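quick q for whoever's on today - can somebody do inverse folding on this one?? i tried earlier but teh output was garbage lol. tokens:
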């Protein structure tokens, strides 16, 4: 029986999962978990990439001690990267996407390419930390890094390189860069040249399901493991989660719910209409050349960062308590636009919520319960707004939302999503990202037949929780007030 070792990295933690395929179902267990802590040095926020690679090695060692494995798959967040030089050495620790270095960078390229042309070429949602803006920052402010760079490797590609020595770029992770052609499924070298970026640093692109290479002799000798393939799964964590949507039809809406809420559909072709551009939807790579047409929405980060602030103030309150407090507060008294730049960066987020409500002339939340209620119902209202826009852009009517990932543990948010959108919500699997990662590995190993076989396997392996809409009239009435906050 073949076993898969999956590494799944989130913004705050990572884990190694060891999986087997038994009777058509994926059975997996966590064998190693670790924190993913950022390090701020000289005012710059970095990922501690060497320590994270140490954790990968630790996961491999633990898997060897538990009987070994036949393939490795890795998924991470998007946009961030490391540069390697001509000797194959990492030039610098990768910088965290929440670092402020890209503030104002979009204005620096406004004379080179318009926002409209950029969207028309890549179909990528504008976010100030996209890879494009990080590279332009280096070009304009730290040119020596690009001058010394041989290749740019996005985070999962960098880990695969460290394991195999192979330099490649998987398509779904490459599609998060704002430098990728969604039709050709390759780098947009014309755009890259126009922006004055070095074309040579962009690796050749491989599709999910292909193999980077085998574990290097050095890794095998150090860790006592056999030489197995490192498979290019859908390496963007959202792409892996969407693979694991337990739907047996292609007519579904998903929310990959975690630090971010990725809200979208699976499309056979890119959607680059004016309306899609105006609403800032993104066209990113999916499995088997599909497109994940989606909107990046600020997600549980709002709750996570609020909790961190209260913890800094001496109150180590749990998420379960915050959920109960939100439910106890009076509804619909105030809202925030969860995607406002004020909420992007780390810091005193509860205070920013209060300041936002003051600034917009609303009721000002007076305690933690009211702040939490404001955050929860604002997230649900943003879901409703996005759900409505998604139907208009795709000219389809959707009757169900699949919520995937760790966010399904937040039952209040799932219920509010159903209430606000007035449709059934199916929650599960909670481990969608790692399950999608594993399933692609099993197809590459010949253990699952095809994409439909993956979806069937995931469906057979998952228990779903259903939420049905309640109090929809109240939500509809409150939605009018919410739209005023958005200026709609």
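ok took a stab at it. sequence:
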């Amino acid at each position: 029986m073949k076993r898969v070792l999956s590494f799944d990295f989130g913004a705050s933690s990572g884990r190694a999962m060891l999986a087997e395929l038994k009777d058509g179902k994926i059975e997996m267990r966590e064998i190693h978990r670790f924190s993913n802590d950022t390090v701020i040095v000289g005012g710059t926020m970095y990922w501690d990439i060497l320590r994270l690679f140490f954790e990968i090695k630790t996961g491999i060692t633990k898997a060897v001690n538990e009987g070994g494995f036949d393939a490795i798959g890795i998924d991470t967040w998007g946009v961030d990267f490391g540069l390697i030089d001509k000797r194959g050495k990492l030039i610098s620790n990768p910088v965290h996407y929440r670092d402020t270095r890209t503030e104002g960078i979009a204005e620096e390229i406004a004379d080179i390419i318009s926002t409209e042309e950029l969207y028309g070429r890549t179909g990528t949602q504008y976010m100030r930390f996209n890879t494009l803006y990080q590279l332009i920052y280096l070009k304009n402010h730290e040119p020596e890094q690009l001058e010394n760079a041989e290749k740019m490797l996005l985070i999962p590609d960098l880990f695969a390189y460290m394991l195999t020595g192979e330099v490649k770029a998987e398509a779904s992770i490459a599609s998060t860069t704002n430098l990728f052609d969604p039709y050709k499924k390759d780098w947009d070298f014309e755009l890259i040249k126009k922006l004055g970026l070095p074309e040579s640093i962009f690796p050749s692109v491989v599709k999910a399901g292909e193999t980077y290479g085998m574990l290097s002799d050095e890794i095998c000798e150090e860790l006592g493991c056999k030489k197995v393939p490192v498979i290019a799964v859908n390496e963007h964590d959202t792409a892996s989660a969407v693979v694991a949507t337990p739907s047996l039809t292609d007519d579904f809406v998903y929310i990959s719910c975690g630090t971010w809420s990725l809200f979208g559909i699976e499309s056979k072709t890119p959607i680059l209409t004016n309306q899609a551009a105006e609403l800032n939807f993104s066209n990113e790579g999916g499995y088997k050349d599909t497109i994940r047409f989606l909107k990046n929405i600020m997600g549980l980060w709002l709750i996570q960062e609020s909790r961190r602030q209260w913890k800094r103030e001496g109150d180590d309150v749990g998420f379960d308590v915050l959920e109960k407090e939100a439910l106890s507060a009076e509804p619909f008294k105030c809202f925030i636009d969860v995607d406002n730049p004020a909420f992007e960066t780390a810091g005193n987020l509860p205070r920013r919520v209060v300041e936002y409500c003051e600034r917009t002339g609303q009721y000002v939340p007076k305690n933690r319960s009211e702040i939490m209620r404001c955050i929860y119902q604002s997230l649900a209202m943003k879901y409703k707004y996005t759900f409505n826009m998604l139907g208009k852009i795709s000219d389809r009517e959707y009757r169900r939302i699949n919520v995937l990932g760790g966010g399904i543990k937040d039952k209040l948010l799932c219920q509010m999503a159903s209430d606000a959108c007035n449709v059934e919500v199916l929650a599960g699997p909670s481990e969608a990202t790692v399950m999608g990662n594993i399933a692609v590995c099993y197809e590459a190993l010949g253990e699952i037949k095809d994409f439909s076989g993956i979806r069937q396997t995931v469906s057979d392996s998952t228990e779903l929780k259903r939420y049905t809409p309640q109090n929809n009239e109240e939500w509809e009435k409150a939605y009018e007030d919410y739209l005023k906050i958005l200026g709609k």
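fwiw DSSP finds 19 helices and 21 strands in the chain. also The CA atoms of residues 83 and 89 lie 8 Å apart. so keep that in mind when u check it
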